[in-house]
Write a structure and sequence with these properties.
Blueprint lengths: L3 H27 L9 E3 L5 H12 L10 E3 L14 E5 L12 E5 L4 E4 L7 E4 L3
Parallel strand pairs: 1-6
Antiparallel strand pairs: 2-3, 3-4, 4-5, 5-6
Amino acid sequence: MFSRRRISAALVGLIVLVVGGWFVQDVLAGEDRNDAGFDVVVLSELPPQAAETWQRIEAGGPFPYPSDGTVFGNREGLLPDQPHGYYQEYTVPTPGLDHRGARRLVTGEEAELYYTEDHYQSFVLVDPDR
């Protein structure tokens, strides 16, 4: 039979492993998430049209659609709450479509850059420098 001491030691060891694994997971996940909880994606991992749109944004245009650069109202409430006018949206063209499609880059006044591929249903935070 197992003694109580062995069972207790095994339980303590198991708890240490679980807590340690949880801590390591949080540390590793922190590298790909920001304080607001968004997944962080490198610009080069997005469709190439996103990088082209970012280059246009950085250059101040020209933009292919009249609505590019207009205020994004964040009506869905998925981005951090900011005053109206804080965010602007830009179309990320989708090859083969004859309309704007669902993909957008959204910029914030503090140089934030977000990407949505599903017309504002979800966002990732984009790191344009990596």
